[in-house]
Design brief:
Umud Fragment, subunit A, 7-stranded antiparallel sheet, 3 helices, extended
C-alpha cells in the first residue's frame, strides 16, 4: 500500500498517541500537532480510511482505530560519494564529504511509480532491457527533462522535452535538439504521462 509522506507522519502520530495514552487523539489535537484545521484533519483521515489503515466509528468520541504499524528500522541506504571518474580514465578518490541517498530520486509526495523496460527496443535511447524507470507523473516538464509520452498512434515513447516558440516538442534522447527534424514530435500530438526522474539498472547476476 502506498502512502504519501504526510500520511505516514499522520499514521506514526496516531500510533504513538494510542500507544502512549491508550486512546486516539481528537481532530482538534491532530490539527494542532500538524498545524492545520479540523476539516483538513478529517480529510486526511478519510483518505486513510479508503486505504484501509484507519477505522472510525460514527458518533463516538476518540473513535479512531488503527490497522497500521510502523515498519522496523532498516539500515540506512545512503552510500558515500568517494570518487570521481574523469575524462582520460583518471579515477580520483577523496574525502567522503557527500552521500548518495536513493530516496532523493523517489517523488513520494507526487505519487511516483516505476516502469520496467522489457526488451531492447529502447536500447538506442540508452534504456536497457530490465531497467527500472522512476516516473514522476507531472504533465508540465521543464526544458531538457526526459518524459514518458503516449502518442496518437498508440505508442509510448521516452523523449527529451524541447521548448518552442509556440509549443513544446519531443525530441530524441540522444541530444538536446533533434538532428532529423522529422523525428521532432509536436506537443499537441502527444500526452505527457510523466517525467523520468531516474533509471536504475542492475548489472551481474541475481
Amino acid at each position: 500500500m502506498y502512502f504519501t509522506d504526510r500520511q505516514l507522519k499522520l499514521l506514526a502520530f496516531l500510533h504513538a498517541r494510542i500507544e502512549a495514552d491508550g486512546k486516539a487523539p481528537t481532530l482538534k489535537e491532530i490539527g494542532e500537532h500538524f498545524g492545520f484545521s479540523r476539516v483538513t484533519a478529517l480529510q486526511h483521515l478519510r483518505a486513510l480510511e479508503k486505504k484501509g489503515s484507519v477505522r472510525r466509528v460514527k458518533h463516538r468520541w476518540r473513535s479512531i482505530e488503527l490497522d497500521w504499524k510502523p515498519t522496523s528500522e532498516k539500515r540506512s541506504a545512503r552510500l558515500p560519494i568517494s570518487g570521481r571518474l574523469q575524462s582520460g580514465g583518471r579515477l580520483e578518490y577523496g574525502q567522503r564529504g557527500a552521500e548518495f541517498d536513493p530516496g532523493d530520486l523517489i517523488p513520494t509526495e507526487r505519487h511516483g511509480h516505476v516502469v520496467r523496460v522489457v526488451g531492447d527496443h529502447l536500447a538506442g535511447e540508452g534504456f536497457a532491457d530490465g531497467a527500472l524507470l522512476v516516473i514522476e507523473p507531472r504533465g508540465a516538464p521543464r526544458v531538457g527533462e526526459l518524459v514518458l509520452a503516449a502518442l496518437q498512434d498508440g505508442r509510448t515513447v521516452i523523449r527529451r522535452w524541447e521548448a518552442g516558440a509556440i509549443e513544446g516538442a519531443l525530441v530524441p534522447v540522444a541530444g538536446p535538439v533533434a538532428a532529423d527534424r522529422s523525428d521532432r514530435i509536436p506537443a499537441r500530438r502527444a500526452r505527457i504521462l510523466g517525467v523520468v526522474r531516474a533509471q536504475v539498472v542492475r548489472y551481474g547476476g541475481d
